[in-house]
């Protein structure tokens, strides 16, 4: 049985976690659902999103072309704090398609405008 620490929309992330806060010699199913597990899940999700945000533009474009749909899924499932981080990462193509000089756009200006008028 596989135990996941990250939400399903980050299913492309795989790895092993070693933490001093986790008790040694205990089964994963006995730790899952505990406060330590929830705190680690929140911290790792936030750290992953911050790391993606710090990628250089070329690497971010490559990342987004592969995992953009996962981020869009994450907006629906994430906590309010993570939702704000994800919104900063989302990109949408303009119509008509942009030229090479015009990058894709982020929904941040629209979101900020809606909040002011709400």
Which terms summarize this structure?
118 residues; mainly alpha; elongated
Record field, number of beta strands: 0
User: The biggest beta sheet, please?
Assistant: none
Which assembly state applies to the chains in this document? Answer: single chain
Give me the secondary-structure category: mainly alpha
| Fraction of residues in β-strands | under 5%
Unreliable parts? none
Radius of gyration: 17 Å
Inertia-based shape? elongated
Mean pLDDT, to the nearest integer, reads: 76
SSE topology string: HHHHH
Write up this protein.
With 118 residues, the chain is mostly helical. Helix content is 54%, strand content 0%. It is built from five helices and no strands. The N and C termini lie far apart (46 Å). 8% of the residues are buried. The mean pLDDT is 76.
Describe the structure in brief.
With 118 residues, the chain is mainly α.
SSE order and pairing:
Blueprint: H1 28-31, H2 35-53, H3 57-77, H4 80-89, H5 108-117
């Amino acid at each position: 049985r596989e135990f996941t620490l990250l939400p399903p929309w980050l299913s492309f992330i795989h790895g092993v976690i070693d933490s001093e806060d986790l008790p040694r010699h205990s089964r994963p199913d006995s730790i899952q659902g505990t406060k330590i597990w929830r705190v680690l899940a929140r911290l790792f999700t936030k750290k992953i999103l911050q790391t993606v945000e710090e990628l250089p533009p070329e690497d971010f474009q490559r990342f987004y072309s592969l995992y953009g749909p996962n981020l869009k899924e994450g907006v629906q499932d994430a906590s309010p704090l993570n939702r704000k981080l994800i919104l900063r990462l989302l990109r949408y193509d303009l119509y008509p398609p942009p030229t090479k000089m015009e990058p894709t756009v982020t929904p941040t200006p629209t979101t900020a405008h809606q909040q002011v008028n709400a």
